[in-house]
Amino acid sequence: MKNPFDNLDKVLEHRVRLQIMSVLVTNDGYEFSSLKEILGVTDGNLASHIKALEREKYISVSKSFVDRKPNTKYKITERGRNAFKKHLDALEAVVKQQK
Amino acid sequence: MKNPFDNLDKVLEHRVRLQIMSVLVTNDGYEFSSLKEILGVTDGNLASHIKALEREKYISVSKSFVDRKPNTKYKITERGRNAFKKHLDALEAVVKQQK
């Protein structure tokens, strides 16, 4: 039987990244400021985790203008949705193994 | 309802540390070399995670001589056992929240 720990995704092994994915998986798109408010983290902290998720193509960024002001929105990608599901299943298997 | 993410333990938010705890919670004491073999990590990597768990008093170290050779064994502490259980419960709640 494969070791469930091996299926954990290194990129998602951080609470803030898990929370970002969990917000984006149930919402069509979220702005930086709304994410920051929900997660209660600093700009720098959120930006670094968003960059890591972007680099892995788990989330995508769309830039637009709203009332002539720049607006940045983050969305989960299909790749991100699958990775998040796989990581949750692995976490579930790790927990089951310990119980 | 409290956000299940808040109950995640920052110290245990790393796969290798979870694996160390999961080995020690079911075994009375483990040597460094055996842990390294089971986890398949480098000396330096394992040592840094063990230090973090020690600093948090989640594991304790006992040093002795076996056949006149120094022997270091790691054991889980009561505090570590409780923290590990709490973290697993929080992981379970996070997974349930997403399903």
TrEMBL record, chains A, B:
Cited Pfam families: HTH_34
Entry-linked CDD domains: HTH_ARSR
Winged helix DNA-binding domain: residues covered: 16-95
Xref: InterPro entries: ArsR-like_HTH, WH-like_DNA-bd_sf, WH_DNA-bd_dom, WH_DNA-bd_sf
Domain of life: Bacteria
Listed SUPFAM superfamilies: Winged helix' DNA-binding domain (SSF46785)
Name of the protein this chain belongs to: Winged helix-turn-helix domain-containing protein
